[in-house]
Amino acid sequence: MKVKILNNSQQEFPCTINIHLTRSCNFNCQFCYAGFGECGSSHLPPDQLRQILYEISRVQSYQNERKIKVNFAGGETLLYPALGGILGFCKQLGLTTSLVTNGFLLDESMVDQFSGALDICAISMDSGLPETNHAIGRCTRDFRPDALFYRSKVGHIHGAGIRLKVNTVVNRLNLHENLAP
Fold first, then answer.
1. What residue numbers bound the domain in which 68 lies?
2. 20 to 30 A Cα–Cα from 17, which one of 59, 117, 118, 133?
C-alpha cells in the first residue's frame, strides 16, 4: 500500500478538543479504552456541555481567528440524545464540529439532520468482513457490519457534504485486510 502525505505549509490545522459525551455504546469492541470508570455519570449533561462549549468559543475569539474543532466521541456519540442540538449550538458559536461513531445508528435522515452543523464524521471501521467484526466485538448480538454497510454510510456522509474520516484499530485479526475499497 502506498501512502501519500500532502504538505501544505499555508494550511493551519485547528486546535482540537475531544469531548467524550457518553460511556454508553451498542458495540463491545475488545480493544475499547472508553471505560471512563473515573466518571460519576454515564453521560455529560447538555446544560453543562453547552457551558463548556461556550467557554471554548470564548478562547477561540482570543486566538486571532485560529479555529477550534470540537470532536465528540464516546462510547457511541449517536446514543447521546441532545447531539443534534449540541452540534447546532457549536455552529452558532463558530466552532468546527466533528464526531466519531461506529455508524450503526447513522441513517440517511440523521445525516441530513446533521448537514450544515457537522463538519467531519469519523466512522470507526476495523474490517469489511462480518466474521472479523464479530471476533473483534464491533457488532451487536444480531448485526455484524460488512463492507456494504460501510459503503452505505460513506455515501450518506458524502451526499450531505460532510467530510469523512475513517478510524481503524489495526490488530491481529485485520492486519492483512485492505480497507481502502
1. 15-20+46-167
2. 133
